[in-house]
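Batch job 17 of 40 flagged for manual review because the log was empty.
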Amino acid sequence: MKKYILIVFAFVVLKSNAQKGFHLGASGTFAATFIYTQNNYGTLAPFELGVVRTSEMNYKFTLGGRGGVVLGYNFKHNWGLQAEVQYLSTGQKYEDNFTGPADLPTGKVGTGGARVNVKREIRLTYVRIPLMAKYISNGGHVAKFYCALGPEFGVRILAKEEVKIANQVYEDALGFTPDQKFQRFDLGVALQLGTEIFATDNLYFDIGMSGVIGAWDINGKALKNIDWYSKNDLNYQKSFVTNIGIVVGIHYIIGQGRDYY
């Protein structure tokens, strides 16, 4: 009998809570992505000049994105919690020109001190789970401002790296795979600012800015244990994934709708 009473009680609690502001939906973000202080780690090993081999490479503008599902609950009229499960594609492109020569498997390039183009691209794919506190303004009947902030946990499911020297694909001189170079887990701080626009009492769209600042070094043990870094860094430098972009979503309130949300 107690078992059935507990089931009925749970149903009543969930139903009453739903009236206070459960919402679920989907969102997507188009973002610029960065990996800060990610040194070349052997990318320039084929170059004969020592000063080139330890050089850093210029950062190039890199695009990424995320998409997934959203679940939230407002325990007060203006305050709530929001959790997401997001698929994130991030990384960084680098490109620079260095003084040759460089010894490649196909032969020397950049003889006589000619400049040699080098490109490097890192792509990382994560499942990310931000857990955020959310504030919603009283606003109007149609639009409300919101702000959400909290930790974001990530599990890397894929890592790729490609290096091209003089447009020739170059294999890592250190012999490390991308899985060895980059940590499986990541942690950051997520922030969202935007506006909720109601189409009906229970259906609304949101648009705003979404950003994540990395707080956990993404480099694996393989990169932490090599004995050189770059001409500008005498000590090991941590690397962080960061991205910022435009988020768009669609949500449905389970309950009485916008005036009670």
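Reviewer: the log was empty due to a logging misconfiguration, but the result itself is present. The first strand starts at residue 22 and ends at 36. Unflagging and moving on to job 18.
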